[in-house]
Amino acid sequence: MDAIIQDEILGTVAADRAHVWHHMTQHKAFEVQDPTLIVEGKGMKVWNAAGKEHLDAVSGGVWTVNVGYGRESIADAVRDQLVKINFFANSMGSVPGAKFAQKLITKMPGMSRVFYSSSGSEANEKVFKMVRQISHQHHGGRKSKILYRERDYHGTTITALSAGGQNERSAHYGPFTPGFVPVPHCLEYRSQFESAECYGERAADAIEAVILREGPDTVGALCLETLTAGGGVIVPPTGYWERVQDICSRYDVLLHLDEVVCGLGRLGTWFGYQQFDIKPDFVTMAKGVASGYAAISCTVTTEAIFDMFKDETLDPLGYFRDISTYGGCTAGPAAALENMRIIEAEKLLENTFMMGRRLMTNLQVLQDKHAVVGDVRGRGLFAGVELVSDRHTKLPADEAHVQAVVSHCLAQGVIIGMTNRALTGFNNTLCLAPALIAKTDDIDQITDAIDRALTHVFH
Ligand code: PLP
């Protein structure tokens, strides 16, 4: 590397160390690590400040860069839009905002309205507010409780954390917003029910039991991740969704699916829920919407829900009194439109389906080979490898060992992740979410690195 460029990069690394408070980072440990600034990316690869190349198996760390790095056409679309008109808020719309909403809805039969904001947490908060407002205006304020599932995550704000089933995220941040009630998780590998028969139905029945306990006339909505991502990569078992849909209809409980991770192709269909027979009332999405090229999230709902906010005669404050400043920035929908075009033009849904199958096959080979692999699970290009110190008792592997596997992969030039750490009791799952452009060689390189890391750490 050119000496001047290297000096400049080292200066930037120093500035980063001195002034940036990083997300999810214990800075005491971080200060003694090698420079980790990522300075460039192309396709599935990224380069750090030291010039080292890595294959990224987690799409930017938090499963976001679905179409890969260095997409000039997205950068061009954003640039062209920003010089034309970058922003306008409130009722004044924008061309890309209208076009993206129209296009998105064509992929979501039954849905018709898109509310823009800029993060997954916000998109979920909008649903919580809509549900509370519906409760006030249509149920005398009674149907205000929102159910969420253990191990799910819906964002980082205090109310999103109130709906969060991961204690590592919420510890020390209370008191929380009242009215959020947990239901059991549905991970069959760590069954909470005595019999394994019809597991999906049983896990759904546990939701019904909570509704009955709380009183159906007090429960407004059920908020679930379609596939629990950071909470351990949990694919709901067969029979679950059909029963959940039935329960929601029976007790007039609105179904909110958080597709912040699963949306825009991650599971091999435009939306994860489309692989099951369900009709949600709300779907939220963020990460893959613009693949990290601009900040955008969407709260999508039906015309029936939208109509509930239109009757002025009922209440002059009856409209949805909510705004997100950057929901009015045109960079988001401009990037999202081009992102969606790429997914279609390059047939990335089909690729995700095929590469997902390869990934799962490779992971099953690792499970046969390494006793420490207790379970492998996933769908499309989102997969988890749960590590246990004893297959019989399923005692979780030590977090330090799981972290050592991640570090060994990094040393081999492959970035993988692990599910949330500390306090949760489910910090033992390796997490993989490569970009939807992954090829066979990339998948094999990822699983080969994990294979070597497991041998290194556990043999
Ligand atoms: N919902 C899910 C399922 C997530 O995984 C996340 C973030 O990882 C969020 C919501 C919050 O999104 P954001 O970080 O954009 O606020």
Automatic annotation (TrEMBL):
InterPro entries: Aminotrans_3, Aminotrans_3_PPA_site, PyrdxlP-dep_Trfase, PyrdxlP-dep_Trfase_major, PyrdxlP-dep_Trfase_small. Keywords: Aminotransferase, Pyridoxal phosphate, Pyruvate, Transferase. Signal peptide: none annotated. GO terms for molecular function: pyridoxal phosphate binding; transaminase activity. Its cofactor is pyridoxal 5'-phosphate. SUPFAM superfamilies: PLP-dependent transferases (SSF53383). The keyword Nucleotide-binding does not apply. CDD domains: OAT_like. Belongs to the class-III pyridoxal-phosphate-dependent aminotransferase family. This is Taurine-pyruvate aminotransferase. It comes from Roseibium hamelinense.
